[in-house]
Write a structure and sequence with these properties.
This protein is an alpha+beta fold and 397 residues long. The chain is built from 7 helices and 20 strands.
């Protein structure tokens, strides 16, 4: 076939978010962003006990009143999107097993056989399966958690299989994330899953996103110290001076509360309001959304991807972090793959070697007991807002 008659393969245009694709609340926030450098930051000084980052008793309070009672994020739904699949999860220090049955229903189980407690599924890779069989004594479960077979059941007296179904945690898929209550005996609390934050996550296409990259971190720092950099802009041109700091500068953010969740909306360096009115323009080139999903997740937009981080406390001085790089679709071309790969490499360096390092060196300093209080200024004003919410949960009767 000559060149004249060779069919041309049409590559679909890359999907992106424009101003028009966002919801009314997001657009309203964008319209409130002042021109770069025209609005001074708030002025304030707020103190918070340094012991809340180092004391075991405080960690146990947070664990028992927040992380064991409230729904917490486990992972993006996109990580286990196909029916008949299962994946394990250990980030919260509990052996969990997430299963999507053949009808598409997602359940979260404790990863333990009801015979003698053996882990049913090992490893961390997504697995395709039609049933779950214990590797120890071959007790077998359906994907709905029901016990369907006991090897040599004739050796057991009066066993009712319905009494040995897998231990299931209350869970929901919401806004493209899987949420679960980690104490199966507590009254499930999904009150933080409010429609306002769901609308934003849906507008950002989180429920249909593609998981391009995932990296697990184990950090020697209190989980709140890991969270803090992602709630303030004060550090950006300073901590990130050699990487991404010049893209942002000292920006003024528009702050909104969506239920208990924070949304920070900011223009990049040299932002002018008319920049967002270019038809069909990728809105994330001009504006950044940074969400603090209560209690322990962060979502930040970038021009070609979205970063999701789930912070999981292990102890008063140790935190597991799952980082996910989400894209609107899998890369469709070599160029798109190259951009995604470079983006993943950069963001892992920025977060891993800069933000996470800052949390760890702060923990080391606090352990010396040099400070009785942490001090926050106006460019960190959302941090005291967050701690007020957290303290109200910890101190609730």
């Amino acid at each position: 076939m000559d060149a004249e008659h060779t069919p041309i393969t049409q590559v679909p245009p890359r999907r992106m978010h424009t101003l028009e694709s966002l919801n009314e609340s997001q657009i309203e926030a964008i319209r409130k962003i002042p021109p770069y450098g025209t609005q001074p930051p708030p002025v304030m000084t707020v103190r918070y006990p340094a012991a809340h980052f180092t004391e075991r008793a405080r960690f146990e309070q947070e664990r028992d009143t927040v992380f064991r009672k409230m729904a917490v994020p486990i992972m993006p739904s996109a990580r286990i999107s196909q029916p008949g699949t299962a994946i394990t999860h250990h980030g919260y220090g509990m052996a969990l097993l997430l299963v999507r049955d053949k009808a598409g229903t997602l359940r979260v189980f404790l990863n333990a056989c009801q015979h003698k407690g053996a882990k049913l599924v090992e490893g961390c890779a997504l697995q395709k399966l039609s049933r779950i069989t214990c590797p120890y004594h071959s007790w077998t479960y359906g994907l709905d958690g029901s016990l369907i077979a006991i090897a040599r059941q004739d050796a057991f007296e009066a066993v009712n299989k319905a009494d040995f179904n897998l231990a299931e945690l209350p869970s929901r898929e919401f806004g493209g994330l899987i949420w679960a209550c980690l104490d199966r005996d507590a009254e499930p609390d999904f009150s933080a899953l409010v429609p306002e934050i769901e609308a934003d996550l849906v507008s950002l296409d989180i429920p249909t996103a593609h998981v391009y990259g995932h990296r697990a971190f184990n950090l020697k720092a209190n989980w709140k110290l890991v969270l803090e950099p992602f709630m303030e802009s004060y550090h950006v041109p300073r901590l990130h001076a050699a990487s991404i700091g010049s893209l942002f500068g000292d920006v003024t953010r528009v702050i909104d509360l969506l239920g208990p969740h924070q949304r920070k909306t900011a223009g990049k360096v040299n932002f002018q309001p008319d920049m967002v009115d270019i038809p069909g323009e990728n809105i994330h080139k001009t504006v950044t959304f940074a969400y603090q999903l209560f209690p322990n997740a962060v979502l930040i937009t970038s021009p070609y991807y979205i970063s999701l981080m789930i912070l999981m406390p292990v102890s008063e001085r140790e935190t597991n972090v799952d980082y996910y790089m989400l894209t609107l679709e899998a890369p469709q071309t070599e160029k798109a793959e190259e951009v995604a790969a470079r983006s993943l490499e950069l963001i892992l360096k920025v977060f891993g070697e800069e933000d996470f390092r800052a949390a760890e060196i702060s923990q080391e300093g606090l352990e010396s007991k040099a400070l009785r209080y942490m001090t926050y200024g106006g460019m960190e004003n959302t941090i005291p807002m967050y701690y007020k919410q957290l303290d109200s949960c910890v101190e609730a009767p």
